[in-house]
Write a structure and sequence with these properties.
Blueprint lengths: L1 H16 L1 H6 L18 H16 L4 H10 L2 H4 L2 H13 L4 H6 L9 H8 L6 H4 L7 H10 L1 H14 L3 H10 L2 H4 L2 H14 L3 H6 L8 H12 L11 H4 L2 H18 L4 H8 L4 H10 L8 H13 L4 H6 L8 H13 L14 H17 L1
Helix pairs in contact: 1-3, 3-4, 3-6, 11-12, 14-16, 19-20
Length: about 375
């Protein structure tokens, strides 16, 4: 509760001391929403409710959108409501619509946003293309502006190399800022090596960290992979940057899976194991793509264990996430539930986070005691 008092005090002080600033910038002073607290409410979820209300009001978006934004960006709970409102107003003043803040929420808590935007305007690209770079540190942004024409050329060249728009290139530069200073010729040469190996541009864009490695290191790893007895269907960037033991485990799992499957497909295997139609098995795989690389020994173990505990195939079909969940965690949770004398008719709670699982378990335990 003390955190709530401090949070409300900060808001009220900001409103009282800066009312003239709000009026000058055409920002509406923040009003405190009416939120009813029940016995189980905490300062944490109250502050979250305030943050959702502030986003909903400042960006003029629906509550569900504001809630999703806050859930995905917990920092919005702790930063000043005034900073959010001011930064949003700065975006509007520079003809950037509210969707910009939704796409790049970190701009809402960026310090000196106005100054950063002034710097980005010096580039010969529209602001709505480069605005993502305002999330970069001030020193990095200084390097970008100082390089001037060279940086503009970098955006152009990388856009061609990755076959994406300048906006997408700027997003890539923000997320992986080593690309801002990495030698362009080196990037070109590594891309050629990766493409010859069979890695797609789409996969490289999703996982560009491999571009940080030297050509010699990449070539050595490619040789190691191609020298194995495992038939590599679709090479991925992570295979070139992960520790050797990770690659070895991956290959061993593939070999084991091939031995278990024989001439059957994964769809046929699941269909038989879960006693369901192949269309249903195919649906499960589409819902849980991780099943394609899951160890079939582990998969068989979890299915057999669930059957031994009285669950049927339809229980698994309804909650396919259980198939990629930790076997040991599932065993421990079911043991805890059984020891408490509780019966469950769904696997859903077994797939939740530890915190959510314990909340559900304690609620069921409390209900059992009151019956």
């Amino acid at each position: 509760m003390a955190k709530i008092v401090r949070y409300l005090s900060r808001i009220l002080i900001n409103n009282n001391n800066n009312n003239s600033t709000f009026m000058q910038r055409n920002i509406r002073p923040l009003t405190i929403p009416s939120i009813k607290l029940n016995d189980d409410a905490t300062s944490a979820n109250y502050e979250k409710s305030l943050a959702v209300h502030n986003i909903e009001r400042s960006l003029n978006v629906q509550k569900r959108i504001a809630l999703k934004l806050v859930n995905e960006n917990q920092k919005l709970i702790t930063i000043s409501p005034r900073l959010i409102s001011e930064n949003h107003e700065i975006l509007l003043e520079n003809k950037l619509v509210s969707s910009t803040a939704l796409r790049y929420p970190f701009l809402l808590w960026s310090n000196n946003l106005g100054e950063k935007i002034s710097l980005l305007k010096k580039l010969n690209y529209p602001l709505d293309v480069t605005i993502v770079l305002a999330g970069s540190s001030r020193p990095m942004l200084g390097k970008i502006i100082c390089s001037g024409r060279k940086f503009e050329e970098r955006i152009h060249i990388l856009s061609q190399l990755f076959k994406v728009s300048p906006r997408d290139t700027c997003e890539l530069l923000y997320k992986k800022d080593f690309l801002i200073t990495r030698n362009l010729e080196t990037i070109k040469e590594i891309l050629n090596i990766l493409r010859e190996f069979g890695i797609t541009l789409e996969d490289i864009r999703k996982d560009p960290w491999v571009l940080r490695y030297s050509q010699a290191t990449i070539k050595d790893r490619i040789k190691y992979i191609t020298d194995t007895e495992v038939e590599l269907l679709t090479p991925k960037p992570w295979m070139l940057r992960s520790p050797t033991e990770v690659i070895e485990n991956y290959f061993k799992r593939r070999q084991d899976n091939r031995q278990i499957l024989g001439s059957a497909s994964l769809t046929e295997y699941l269909s038989k194991k879960l006693e369901c139609a192949e269309d249903q098995a195919k649906y499960l795989i589409s819902k849980m793509p991780a099943l394609r690389t899951k160890s079939l020994r582990t998969l068989s173990e979890i299915i057999n264990f669930l059957y031994s505990k009285g669950f049927q195939s339809y229980h698994i079909y309804r909650v396919p996430k259980i198939l990629v969940h930790s076997v040991e965690t599932t065993k421990k949770r079911l043991e805890l539930i059984e020891n408490a004398g509780i019966q469950i008719d769904s696997l859903y709670m077994l797939t939740k986070s530890q915190k959510q699982f314990m909340q559900n378990f304690e609620a069921m335990l409390k209900t059992k005691r009151t019956v």
